Every structure is written in structure tokens, then in C-alpha cells.
Amino acid sequence: MATALALGPALAHLLELPNKIGLPKDTYFTVQQIYRGWNLLGMVLMLQLLSIVAVILMARDDRRLRILATIALLCLAGARVLFWIFTFPANTATVNWTTQPDNWETLRQHWEYSHAAGALLQLTGMVCLVLGSLGDNRPRLSQ
User: Fold this and answer.
1) I need a surface site. Which of 30, 35, 72, 107 has the fewest CB within 10 A?
2) Quick check: 59 and 139 in contact, CB under 8 A?
3) Is 90 exposed, middle or buried (0-12, 13-18, 19+ CB in 10 A)?
4) Is the Cβ–Cβ distance between 11 and 109 less than 8 Å?
5) Radius of gyration of the chain (CA)
6) Predicted confidence band at 139 (pLDDT cuts at 50, 70, 90)?
7) Exposed/middle/buried for 47, CB within 10 Å: 0-12, 13-18, 19+?
8) Where are the domains of the chain?
9) Cα gap 65→42, rounded to integer Å
10) Alpha-carbon distance 133 to 127, whole Å?
11) Which residue did the predictor score with more confidence, 37 or 50?
């Protein structure tokens, strides 16, 4: 459930990209203000992390689920790495998109594409968790 909650905002970033990436500077900086307060979603990401780790620990007898949950955890980690390498520095350089530095277009690309890649990682993680929750229903040979 935490991964589903985290996926919502991530997909919002991905889906808005085509409509925002070409906006003129003033318009782009205005539109970016809709994300005020989204930093509170960090709590959802922490819950997501704890939940996936719990699934991995509880799945010690289910290798398939453990592997899929580990992939989901790696996807979450990858999304966070992208955030800290590309998104956060862009937020910092623009003072959360209230200051317009000369390299704003490069920062916009870093911000938009790192969010898009993070969303794809989150989606992959969600798919892994769903597949893991479905269980392994393959027929077994009796011994």
C-alpha cells in the first residue's frame, strides 16, 4: 500500500513532463509552485522502505517473493539516488524554483527527467510487489 501511495505522485511527475518541459521560463517557474508541501511525501517513502524491508524479512521461506521484494527495494533505492543526485540539487540551486539562475534549463532537465526515471523505477517496484503478492501458483509435482 505504501508503494502504491508513493507511486501516485511519481506518476504525476512522469505524466506532466511532456506538457511542462517546453514551457517558457516564467511560466515554468510559476507552475513549479504547485509542488509546495510535497516534501511531506518523504514520510510515505520512509513507510515504503520499512514495508518492503518487512516483506523481505517475512518472506524468508518464499524465495520468489523475497527476490521480487528485493528488486522493489532496489528500485526504491535507485529512485532515491536519482532524487539526491539530480532533483535535490536543482531544487537547491533554484531555491525550490523561486530563483531563476542562468542554467535553469539544465536544472529543469535534471529535475524533470530524474523524476520521470524515478517514476519508472517506482512503477517497476510496484509491479514486482504485485507479482510477489500473487504467489507462486505453478502446479507442483508430487513426490
Assistant:
1) 30
2) no
3) buried
4) no
5) 18
6) low
7) middle
8) 2-134
9) 26
10) 10
11) 50
